[in-house]
Design a protein that fits this description.
Chain A is mainly β. Helices cover about 0% and strands about 55% of the residues of chain A. The mean pLDDT of chain A is about 95. Helix content of chain B is about 0%, strand content about 55%. The termini of chain B are far apart. Chain B is globular, with a radius of gyration of 13 Å. In chain B, a hairpin with a 2-residue loop joins strand 5 and strand 6. Chain B is mainly beta and about 120 residues long. Classes of the chains: A mainly beta (about 110), B mainly beta (about 120). At the A-B interface, strand 5 and strand 10 of A face strand 4, strand 5, strand 9 and strand 10 of B.
Chain lengths: ~110, ~120
């Protein structure tokens, strides 16, 4: 089976940097993805890591270490609009690149 | 822009009823998915389809079935609704073309189903 662990809540202030960690145990692994979901909204794709290392997209970066079964999402220059839930997800099988999601981290950005 | 639409935003059904949730995507995506989302449990995959008439069970298929007769449409069926199926249901789609594109799933707005 698959299991993913991420903190349930993180709080930070505007302008700060926050890191959301994700550790996983899967029977197969074809990459780690991150999704953002605002209250009442649909999840939206943020990033995908297939290989070890850091991927940067604007204020957001995502890191993967396959040997440690660990990844993180780094959010810089936090803004109020970044308050949302963030989900890590692994692709345990090749078919359709299906995803298994973590339970999510609620990020609250304070003024 | 990719658009994934779901037939209802809110739905209230009685225990034992047969329930149909419909999802349509307009980007010619090969892959389609049904998830349910419950507080503290994240998104859990119910079923997915990688081609017309092709389907595979996800992590929690019990009590559900699916149908994909056309590429753009993927239906989730609750054969006999029960109260423990009260949840938010999310449909998603992704391209089957290209290594990186296939990992990006596009989600619909969700259907909040209440079974009483």
């Amino acid at each position: 089976g698959q299991s993913l662990e991420q903190p349930s809540e993180v709080t930070a202030v505007e302008g700060a940097i926050v890191q959301i960690n994700c550790t996983y145990q899967t029977s197969g692994f074809y990459g780690l993805s991150w999704y953002q979901q605002h209250d009442g909204g649909a999840p939206t794709f943020l990033s995908y890591n297939a290989l070890d290392g850091l991927e940067e997209t604007g204020r957001f970066s995502s890191f993967l270490s396959r040997s440690d079964s660990y990844g993180y999402l780094l959010l810089q220059e936090l803004q109020m609009k970044d308050s949302a839930s963030y989900f890590c997800a692994v692709s345990p099988r090749w078919t359709a690149r299906q995803l298994t999601f973590g339970s999510g981290t609620q990020l609250t950005v304070l003024p | 822009d990719v658009k994934v639409t779901q037939s209802s935003r809110y739905l209230v059904k009685r225990t034992g009823e047969k329930v149909f949730l419909e999802c349509v995507q307009d980007m010619d995506h090969e892959n389609m998915f049904w998830y349910r989302q419950d507080p503290g449990l994240g998104l859990r995959l119910i079923y997915f389809s990688y081609d017309v008439k092709m389907k595979e069970k996800g992590d929690i298929p019990e009590g559900y079935s699916v149908s994909r007769e056309k590429k753009e449409r993927f239906s989730l069926i609750l054969e006999s609704a029960s109260t423990n199926q009260t949840s938010m249901y999310l449909c998603a789609s992704s391209s089957g073309q290209g290594f990186f594109k296939s990992y990006e799933q596009y989600f619909g707005p969700g259907t909040r189903l209440t079974v009483t």
